[in-house]
Amino acid sequence: AGEGSAPVPGDGAGPPASERVLFPPTFSVSEIKNKQRRHFMFLRWKQQQRKEKLALKKKRRKEREALGDKAPPKAIPKTIENQRVYDETTVDSNDEEVAFDEATDEFAPYFNRQTVPKILITTSDRPRGRTVRFCEQLATVIPNSHVYYRRGLALKRIIPQCIARDFTDLIVINEDRKVPNGLVLSHLPDGPTAHFRMSSVRLRKEIKRKGKEPTEHVPEVILNNFTTRLGHSIGRMFAALFPHDPQFIGRQVATFHNQRDYIFFRFHRYIFKSEKKVGIQELGPRFTLKLRSLQKGTFDSKFGEYEWIHKRREMDTSRRKFHL
């Protein structure tokens, strides 16, 4: 019903035939009518594939050890990241035009140390418990941040009040079906405003092997893979949330890692065990962001001018095309 005596095609690197589960060359799990039998045979076939892959890996490692210095260089595996379609807006570190634009943009006062970040974190109307807890935990990650609840106020009314009270950024956490699903980040007083889709939110109690509660030390900030002009703008928005001069004694790190246009946020504490080994503990919360739009100025859903909008049908034509 699926097993046969014909050997599996390959280069002979797998275990002896007596130790292998043998399938005919034309074996297809879908031909098995019985559901339980089909599932069982699929698991056996996958197990055989793993064994053959491991045996081939061991064989190549032994060959490299035998050749020593004469061994050929390791082949670089093809991934979606290293096969990325070239983006003409990729930033060169020596580009004078980019340097001039960044020296005169809305974030220049922060990077010139003329302003100190002060963040207001709020929610959509009538937030549920999970969203409230997420905002409270986010406030422990971002120094000098304050959590206030909307109480029915429109964002257009909140923004002038924030500017009058010297807030430099506004973060709005939206929710759907009691789950946080969106984040609006507006840099004050002149913008820009970014709208993100939020997913994979994990609160501290939901993270396994988490560390103790974070301290009030200013964390270090790591920004990974924001390589295009758009990516630089988003990276500068995240950087402007945290004060300069992190307190290294706290050993806390906030990481924004961009991979395939998904921004993964993690908050860790580290400790040096030796000169070569470092131990890390995740403190939480964690979440994933996907940029939906970047708007000039502060939040204005009706008359705002957009710098960039994610148009899925037009932009997602290739899996190797990324925008950040």
Automatic annotation (TrEMBL):
PANTHER family linked to this entry: RIBOSOME PRODUCTION FACTOR 1, U3 SMALL NUCLEOLAR RIBONUCLEOPROTEIN PROTEIN IMP4
Gene Ontology molecular-function annotations: rRNA primary transcript binding
This protein's name: Ribosome production factor 1
Segments for region (Disordered): 1-22, 53-75
Organism for this UniProt entry: Peucedramus taeniatus
Lineage: Eukaryota, Metazoa, Chordata, Craniata, Vertebrata
GO process terms (BP): maturation of 5.8S rRNA; maturation of LSU-rRNA
Keywords for the protein's UniProt record, in alphabetical order: Ribosome biogenesis, rRNA processing
Composition bias type Basic and acidic residues, residue spans: 63-72
SMART domains (UniProt xref): Brix
SUPFAM superfamilies recorded: Class II aaRS ABD-related
GO cellular component, as recorded: nucleolus; preribosome, large subunit precursor
Main location per the UniProt record: nucleus
Domain Brix, residue spans: 117-300
Pfam families the record matches: Brix
